[in-house]
Amino acid sequence: MTPTNTRPTPTRQPTRTLIPSPALPHVGRTPPQPRFTWADLLEAVREAGRYPTTAEAEHITRVVIAALGSQITGDERVALAHALPRSAAALIASEPPARHPSPAAEFVESLIPHLEGATPATARWHAGSVLSTLPPLLGTPLTTRLLSQLPPGYALLFGKAQLTPHP
User: Fold this and answer.
1) Residues 102, 152: contact at Cβ < 8 Å?
2) Global pTM value
3) d(Cα 158, Cα 147) in Å, to the nearest integer?
4) pLDDT per residue over 64-115, tens digit each?
5) CA 96 – CA 70 distance, rounded (Å)
6) Distances (CA, A) of 22 to 25, 28, 79
7) Angstrom distance (rounded) from CA 5 to CA 135
């Protein structure tokens, strides 16, 4: 006679040891959200550049932030993308990083084809209007890290004094 109500004997599963992952700030959770929105950034740029419309400020912001994305590499690039609103972070990610960042003058010149009717002087104005809004939004530590990675001349675009060490 065979029993009809038999339960299988549970088999013991091997014990698993979990090894914690290194302390990566955003692994397994949502990255921190920027303290400001895309609209906040555009309004800051519109005011800094004295642009008549938000649409004009947005176009210029997109061009300059995308160009900046190609100049920043490594941890600073990731930190910058995480510190910016999603729309700006996507612009940073959209451009492959250059092997070596361009000198500030070349960076400004690279903006001219993307800004209708731009001259070297207006491209410099546009770059400064966008980049000078970033330090108060990003904070001093990240701004300092970004500027240390870039060649001389960018500090002025970020609205900062270009300090050089004494020999």
Assistant:
1) no
2) 0.77
3) 9
4) 999 999 999 999 999 999 999 999 999 999 989 999 999 999 999 999 999 9
5) 6
6) 9, 12, 18
7) 72
